[in-house]
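Task 17 of the worksheet. Students: predict the tertiary structure of the chain below and write it out as structure tokens. Keep your answer in the requested format; marks are given for formatting as well as content.
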Amino acid sequence: MTILDSVLGDFFWRAMLGGLGVALVAGPLGCFVVWRRLAYFGDTLAHSALLGIALSFLISVPLNLGVVITCVLIALALVLLSRTRTLASDTLLGILAHSALAIGLVTLSFMPDVRVDLTGLLFGDLLAMTRQDLLWIYGGAAFVLGLLALLWRGLLMSTIHEELARVEGIPVERLRLALMLMFSLVIAVAMKIVGVLLITALLIIPAATARRLAHNPEHMTVLAVGFGVLAVSGGLTLSWHLDTPAGPSVVVTAFLIFLLVYGGARQSRL
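Model answer:
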């Protein structure tokens, strides 16, 4: 048995490796959530993940693939509906978020032969991490980080000043769609760690913490990754020793780090 086999054979270390992979990609992407004020948009995509799970069972496709496809379709629907300006954006996001979650739960209730751990899906499941999940997480993370590196300048310019970016010839709409695709992938791979209801927290809290200390966008992304890694490792360790749910433990740890950073910064300023 190799060292890798012995490491991957332990469910705790599989979960830790998976969580660290999620933190690596959630940090940079979370910065765009904070900069663009997309927290509620991220919640809507996360809630739609449960509908993707239900449809995956219905049409017999892999769960992660079903979640990615559903999240992308929901994101496209949001873009199209927001252009009509019939409803305010926050109202539209609220309607789609809770409707997608409810439709997913109702759809699952009509499939009695399918056994689904709803608690694990909603709040993360430490025991459910498999080698296939690790491949999804690190494959998705590599794809998203590569795409972010390729599109970084355009995404940053369109985030700072969208109209100026259009004048410069930057394809703002295409970049927005690419960002939605990246959100969808991160949501699909993060379900096992923090669950559907807490994915947005892992995107927002480390990035918001990093914003307090960062000197430039690149510095903020590095700090966000670091705080995400601390949150995952601390949260899973807490879950292991205190027998608490893995996903909520990660989010609580991220929140404690946020309080420490902002409290320390305030004391320093005073």
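Marker's comment: The CA atoms of residues 151 and 195 lie 28 Å apart. The chain has one domain: 3-269.
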